[in-house]
Amino acid sequence: MRIILLGPPGSGKGTQAALLKERLSVPHISTGDLLRAAVKAGTPLGLKAKAAMDAGELVSDELVLGLIEERLGQADIGGGYILDGFPRNLVQAEALDTLLDRLGQPVEKALELTVDEEQIVRRLAKRAAEEGRSDDTEEVVRNRLSVYHQQTAPVTGYYADRNLLIRVDGMGSIEEINQRLVDALR
Ligand code: ADP
Questions:
Q1: What is the band of 169 on the pLDDT scale with cuts at 50, 70, 90?
Q2: What is the mean pLDDT of the chain?
Q3: How buried is residue 131: exposed, middle or buried, by Cβ count under 10 Å (0-12/13-18/19+)?
Q4: Residue 85 — left, alpha, or beta (φ > 0 → left; ψ -120 to 50 → alpha)?
Q5: Distance between CA atoms of 42 and 91, rounded to whole angstroms?
Q6: Is there a catalytic annotation at residue 142?
Q7: 148: CA distance to ligand 1 center in Å?
Q8: End-to-end CA distance of the chain
Q9: Which among 142, 160, 162, 168 would be 20 to 30 A from 5, CA to CA?
């Protein structure tokens, strides 16, 4: 199964992707995770990405597309994939389509987790306390949400236009939401 997970920061994409990955036995590819690993390893790409990440802005399309192209070029995506945190704007969505067409692995479903804003802010504050992610401070969270509304929300329309979008209620327990996603994939 070839899936994209969409939804605002804090909507639970990472948590749900980890569960779906086990269930579907396909790799979970998160651009946020790939970028954080690059920052931690101190690679040139990581050094270039860090300032944007810490400010809650999008990392440049050039860097992210290079990263995703390299990752999707690996053999393990032959059985499918779960993309999380990508594409995050329309330029990335179009570039992804081109890349996946070339690989013969087009997207089958785009699942959007919908969560109300109040819940998001609460979840991210909790994660900040637990994980200490440097971009989970209140000001940066607010900026990430505004970037989401301006740049990423139109991506759901892109997949809706292609009849690939399924909206899934992202409110409730982790298990409940997982079950809704599994049902949506049937
Ligand atoms: P969240 O789901 O909480 O927004 P992510 O782990 O997906 O967190 O992303 C963290 C940060 O990494 C983003 O705020 C952004 O700076 C950067 N990032 C991740 N994916 C992309 C992408 N596809 N394009 C540009 N920047 C990205």
A1: very high
A2: 95
A3: exposed
A4: left
A5: 27
A6: no
A7: 10
A8: 10
A9: 142
User: Of the residues 4, 16, 31, which should be mutated to test ligand 1's pocket, given the most ligand atoms within 8 Å of the CB?
Assistant: 31
Q: Which of 13, 36, 135, 140 to mutate to test the pocket of ligand 1 (most atoms within 8 A of CB)?
A: 135
- Residue 180: active-site member: no
**What is the chain's length?**
186
| Domain boundaries of the chain, sorted by first residue | 2-29+79-184
For domain 2-29+79-184, the CATH superfamily is P-loop containing nucleotide triphosphate hydrolases (3.40.50.300)
Residue 156 is which amino acid?
T
Q: Is the pTM of this model over 0.90?
A: yes
Per-residue tokens: 134: 């440097």
**Would you say the C-alpha torsion 40, 42, 46, 49 has a positive or negative sign?**
positive
Residue 71 bears catalytic tag: no
Which residue's alpha carbon is nearest to atom 12 within ligand 1?
A: 32
Residue nearest to atom 19 of ligand 1 (CA): 32
